[in-house]
Amino acid sequence: MFDVSFSELMLIGVIALIVIGPERLPKVARTVGHLLGRAQRYVNEVKSDIQKEMDLKEIGDIKHQMEDAARSVQSSMTSSVDELRAAVTQPSQALKDTLDQARQALDTRPASADAPASGAAPAEPAAGAPAIPAPAAERSPEPASVPRSAPASTDTSH
Questions:
Q1: Which residues contact 38 (CB under 8 A, 6 or more apart)?
Q2: What is each CA distance from 84 to 88, 90, 96, in whole angstroms?
Q3: DSSP code of residue 109
Q4: How many angstroms separate the first and last alpha carbons of the chain?
Q5: Could you tell me where the DSSP H helices lie in the chain?
Q6: Coil, strand or helix: which one is 114?
Q7: pLDDT the model gives residue 21
Q8: Angle formed by the axes of helices 6-20 and 25-107, to 10°?
Q9: Which of 41, 2, 38, 1 is nearest to 12 (CA)?
Q10: Is the separation of the CB atoms in 129 and 107 below 8 Å?
Q11: Which pTM was predicted?
Q12: In whole angstroms, what is the distance from residue 121 CA to residue 30 CA?
């Protein structure tokens, strides 16, 4: 802090000895030492307070950076979730629309197609409607398989 050499300190000591006198010089030197010690501690406290403030400022800056990064991650996650929802909703809506169209096609079939007369061919499903098998009562009966017996032998030679 001060650029004081040993020779300058010796000169200050000799002048103090002449001015103050040899009886009071030790007491004054002790008091000056205590005052310099207090001043040094005060300067060190101020330095540490300044350092703490700088550290708090750095921590605050880091906190703001982390908050900004968290907001960025949250917004990117939100946009990703929205994109995924849109990707899932679009095909499911198309399936629902197709199902609704099929139901409407089934509901708007003529009543004669629901109950075909005996001997009449079953009605074809409407275009675009899924093929639905007819109930068991409406199906034509399948011929029962009759076991065939072996032909009788006509051989008369014994």
A1: none
A2: 6, 10, 18
A3: S
A4: 147
A5: 6-20, 25-107, 111-114
A6: helix
A7: 87
A8: 130
A9: 2
A10: no
A11: 0.38
A12: 127
| Alpha-carbon gap, residue 25 to 16, rounded angstroms | 7
Look at residue 61 and give its three-state secondary structure: helix
The contacts of residue 130 (CB under 8 Å, 6+ apart) are: 102
| Averaged pLDDT, groups of 10, the chain, 158 residues long | 80 88 89 94 95 92 94 94 89 90 84 51 52 50 52 55
Structural Rg of the chain based on CA atoms: 54
Largest CA distance in the chain: 172
Q: Would you state the structure tokens that stand for residue 51, as one six-digit string?
A: 């350092």
For residue 80 the two structure tokens come to: 């990703």
At residue 133, the 3 state secondary structure works out as: coil
Residue carrying structure tokens 């000591």: 13
Task: Give the contacts of 109 (CB within 8 A, at least 6 positions apart).
Answer: 123, 126
Tokens 């880091």, residue located: 62
The distance of Cα 99 from the centroid of its chain, to the nearest Å, equals 34
CA dihedral of residues 35, 41, 47, 48 (deg, nearest 10): -160
Side chain identity, residue 150: A
Is the distance from CB of 36 to CB of 29 less than 8 angstroms?
Answer: no
